[in-house]
Amino acid sequence: MESRLEYLATPKKDYQRLQDKRSVYWLDKIPQQWPTVCVLTPRQMELSQPKTIYENYKSDRPPIWPVTSSAMNCNPTPRVMLLAQAKQVNQNWQPDRSVYSEVSERARTAIASPRIIQLSQPKSYDSVDDQESDYRIQSARALAFRRSLNTEASPRLLALATPKDVPKEYLCERPVQWLVSEAVKNAAATERVIRLAKPKTRRELYEGFDPYKISSAAKHTTATPRLKELCMPLPRKMKHKV
Q1: Are 239 and 60 in contact (CB under 8 A)?
Q2: Kind and range of the H or E element at 121?
Q3: In this predicted model, what pLDDT tens digit does every residue of 203-228 receive, in sequence order?
């Protein structure tokens, strides 16, 4: 009998039948058959089956059924008679108030007091009052203007009012149109520049291109000490064994 460790070491059975494990496919045409084929596991097949009806299940009773003679001639008990009584309305229950409220006779014959009559009057804006308020506003503004002419700013206000200087190393924006030098106009591209200017040619996937092919130079390359240092995990994220 296998041990617990041997059972845990056994690899999990793959039910998906994957032909390849690529996550991205470079395809120019839709293939007739997808490379990845998914198959349900036995447990999934079992869960996909519809639920069977319980063997002791009884269908619903028909709405009309015969009543036995004993049920017709039986006498109800006091408890059954009590439960058969309709539920009484709560004694504190009140019906909904009508949408149309009724005005009492006292409210109809009431006489308003002088204070209520005074508050019910709309506000009156006379032309004389408007002219006086405008005159007061203008005089207040003139007085404030005359005071501001004789006011001297503090050194702090003068320092804050000074505009910010432009840094010495600031460069203005380059104009949209600028002159091209004669050296650039007469320059000749080197062979290296011409070779780098050509677009990279690559075959399509259906022509035999393999995007996962690794070059021989990449296989024989060695990482620099700096790359090895960057590949190491951060010390603060490493768990130290006790």
Answers
A1: no
A2: none
A3: 777 777 787 888 888 888 898 999 99
